[in-house]
Amino acid sequence: MPKTVADVMTRDPIIVRGETPLQEAIQILAEKRISGLPVVDDAGKLVGIISETDLMWQETGLTPPAYIMFLDSVIFLKNPAAYERDLHKALGQTVGEVMSNNPITTKSDQPLKEAAKIMSDRKVHRLPVLDTEGQVVGILTRGDIIRAMANDQN
């Protein structure tokens, strides 16, 4: 019988809220040695995910977008809206200001092969696992899949 996401996911993952201070989320990630956390609203519904990638903006800083001056006008060579978004992330103080919105998710009854393909195709490291109400019931990571593969070998 093919494995499902429920067979290998981490159940009851640590979650944070949008108003959680960024330093608190950083501490959780470091202490628990995990690379991402689901972010939920007051009703417990998934609203985003915060990962190491989101936090890198805090340390790396930003380079303003390239521009040229032409007849007293500024012409940006890259989209200035992207710079504004990245600047907001770099200066964020709460999880909600830094998190990635609209994360890719899965259901616990999804075949593991399909979830692994989604992760590979979309280049994501984790999939929050939602129940029918949109509540986070688990998280599937690349590490969970690798451990399942190792267990199959034994």
Topology:
Elements: H1 5-8, E1 10-11, E2 16-17, H2 22-32, E3 36-40, E4 46-51, H3 52-60, E5 67-70, E6 73-76, H4 80-91, H5 95-98, E7 100-101, E8 106-107, H6 112-122, E9 126-130, E10 136-141, H7 142-153
Parallel strand pairs: 2-3, 8-9
Antiparallel strand pairs: 1-10, 3-4, 4-7, 5-6, 9-10
Helix pairs in contact: 3-4
Can you describe this structure?
By secondary structure, this protein is an alpha+beta fold. It has one domain (5-153): CBS-domain (Roll), CATH 3.10.580. The protein is 41% helix and 25% strand. The protein has helices at 5-8, 22-32, 52-60, 80-91, 95-98, 112-122, 142-153; strands spanning 10-11, 16-17, 36-40, 46-51, 67-70, 73-76, 100-101, 106-107, 126-130, 136-141. It has a 4-stranded mixed β-sheet with strand order 1-10-9-8. Strands 2-3-4-7 form a 4-stranded mixed β-sheet. The protein has a two-stranded antiparallel sheet with strand order 5-6. β3 and β4 form a beta hairpin. The longest helix has 12 residues, at 80-91. The model has no long low-confidence stretch (mean pLDDT 85).
